[in-house]
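Lecture notes, unit on binding sites. The following record was shown on slide 14. It pairs a sequence with pyridoxal-5'-phosphate.
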Amino acid sequence: MTTRVWDYLAEYEAERRDILDAVETVFDSGQLVLGASVRGFEEEFAAYHGADHCVGVDNGTNALTLGLQALGIGPGDEVITVSNTAAPTVVAIDAAGATPVFVDVRAEDFLMDTDQVAAAVTDRTRCLLPVHLYGQCVDMAPLKELADRHGLAVLEDCAQAHGARRGGTLAGTTGDAAAFSFYPTKVLGAYGDGGAVLTSDAAVDRRLRQLRYYGMEERYYTLRTPAHNSRLDEVQAEILRRKLRRLDRYVEGRRAVARRYAEGLAGTSLELPRTTPGNEHVYYVYVVRHPRRDDIIERLRAYDIHLNISYPWPVHTMSGFAHLGYAEGSLPVTERLAGEIFSLPMYPSLPLDLQDKVVHALREVLETL
Ligand SMILES: *Cc1c(COP(=O)(O)O)cnc(C)c1O
């Protein structure tokens, strides 16, 4: 059997009755759009985080775009983020009409190098957009301090960090707003697309509700600013409510896989993920590093193991963002990583025998490299 980096079928098998009950609950409810399930999920997701508001939207990319717009970010504004991220982080900034500005990441944990942010601030900077990549949180304290000093907004990209903590603080609870994705592979994943924005600012919450609903202030009232249709689907919201109750268990499952990999691969030439002190990693992906990455991936195919790279092309090197003017070599750590990292299979229901198969195959490949 082919071993893939992600697979939901074992989890579905275990949770089938609950998932299908969620679908039936919505179909029986008489309200298929923005009903009790979206409202219920918004309340429960906000409560999980101790935040005042949550607005469900259709995906994580639009959670970022609407989050930026609700914070007043638009054309002419610069948003400081990283290039070592999923392309949608940057696509969302572009969609809001703003200009992405990149800083490099730290070689230790591949997260935003917060020491570089101050030098990237210009008189057009309006927002800092840290990405809690792979399941670990960026150090928010220096970013908050900088944002307060310059009057900048902070939007957290939490698409890979549901349930992650740093210094005991949950991802998504430090910035002015936080964007989440519930794409199926995520730590909290739907059975289709979904997203949400968290905020404890009532005005931001109100703007988000307009932005996801054509720009209307209330149902069928006239609108001042044409916006989007970005509603969270009612069925996905009900499934997410059920799965939110199990979020901490999913995270524990991911940590158990990570521990088994760390034990099995200790002493090899593979650089394993490092948890930065204070972080509680949720292992959205298990990213390892090796200078001969491409050879390793190629040889693992013989074992029927297919691995992913998150991400093989830094966003600033993509032709769609060439106009931003980042030459090759401008973000050296990001560029070096892109050629050396790859991700091992990671999901809470990953069977033990597949975990061991990956470890044994990797050990064999590394010994004969
Ligand atoms: C998945 C992801 C997104 C986009 O989420 P979608 O729901 O796929 O639109 C944005 N940022 C990061 C870091 C992601 O991993």
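Take-home: The chain has a mean pLDDT of 96.
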